[in-house]
Amino acid sequence: MKQLRVRVVQKHGKCPHEVGESWETPYALMKPTGKTLLCDDAHYVLIPYLGMAAGGAHSWEIDGLWKIHCPSKLGIVFEIETLDKDHQWPENSDWSKKEE
Q: Where are the chain's structural domains?
């Protein structure tokens, strides 16, 4: 899995989050952490996209970053960015073993 950053890039209505706020997570199902707390509704919406981004799937956006709208019709837009493109699995991990 890859280290991910979630950032607010647009705000359309009432929301406790502000443009520019960001959170990071080392694992797709782990709630991203930052200076502020990401709301649960946003986290639940982001989970499938965090998993795809961490797994290396390509975004449909032209810039390659995932852009996801929160569940509120007047909510915010999140951007998901992969931070470590060359992540290495720990040596004791089954994933680190190469096929022979």
A: 4-92
